[in-house]
Known about the structure:
Blueprint: H1 3-34, H2 36-45, H3 51-71, H4 75-92, E1 104-108, E2 111-114, H5 120-135, H6 142-150
Antiparallel strand pairs: 1-2
Helix pairs in contact: 1-2, 1-3, 1-5, 2-3, 3-4, 4-5
Amino acid sequence: MKMSSVLAARWALLPMRVVVALGFLVHGAAKWNRGPAKFAVLLGQIGIPAPMAAAWSTTVVELLCGSALLIGLWVTVACIPLVVTMLVAMFTIHVHYGFSAVNTVGLTAAGPQFGPPGYEINLLYLAILAALAVSGPTPLSIDAVRQAERS
């Protein structure tokens, strides 16, 4: 593969890294702002063991690893706990609602009514995290700067 193709592929992954990072940061910030104890109640209702510990660890993982992705620091390592959170969410919650992320359950004069989301978004996040984990540093990342310094 030509060097220009490798560079183009890495630039193509940059918006994916940023958007996935922002997704995790927004979800982590929402858990933090509401308080992980409220998230723990939901986790307890679906049978997650040690729901308070799981709520805190999920919140911290989303905030720290989302931040790492955003700035491009230790991306491969940061992807691992994020993959775990996506797999847990997918298999404990979303898989029960089918594939589609948008489940329209009705239509009213006010507009469409939506049911719980399926696992489509989880799969998209997992695919992007896998691509980021194996691709090497993307442009505009601390990992790329560190790699250039070693060369």
